[in-house]
């Protein structure tokens, strides 16, 4: 009997719904951080930084 509201578990016994809930509350995702950095740093500053690294 598979109740839609009952917790779903992996073969190792991990509660899938609990993991999803914790992930939703864990902060920014990798892609959100990349976008935040891209929106914060202008292209000119990135070019200057790369130029300094190659000299």
Please characterize this protein's 3D structure.
- With 55 residues, the protein is mainly α.
- The chain contains three helices and no strands.
- The longest helix has 12 residues.
- The radius of gyration is 21 Å and the shape is elongated.
- The N and C termini lie far apart (67 Å).
- The model has no long low-confidence stretch (mean pLDDT 79).
**What is the residue-mean pLDDT, rounded to a whole number?**
79
Task: Extract low-pLDDT stretches.
Answer: none
**SSE series:** HHH
DSSP strand content: under 5%
Which bin fits the share of residues in helices?
55-70%
**Outline type:** elongated
Give the C-alpha Rg: 21 Å
By secondary-structure content and strand pairing, the structural class works out as: mainly alpha
Number of strands: 0
The separation of the N and C termini measures: 67 Å
Largest sheet: none
Question: Count of helices?
Answer: 3
Summarize it.
The protein is an all-alpha fold and 55 residues long.
What labels would you give this structure?
55 residues; mainly alpha; 58% helix
Please give the structural blueprint.
Layout: H1 16-24, H2 30-40, H3 43-54
């Amino acid at each position: 009997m598979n109740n839609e509201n009952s917790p779903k578990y992996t073969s190792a016994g991990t509660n899938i719904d609990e993991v999803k809930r914790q992930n939703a509350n864990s902060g920014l995702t990798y892609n959100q951080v990349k976008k935040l950095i891209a929106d914060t740093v202008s292209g000119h500053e990135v070019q200057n930084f790369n130029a300094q690294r190659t000299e």
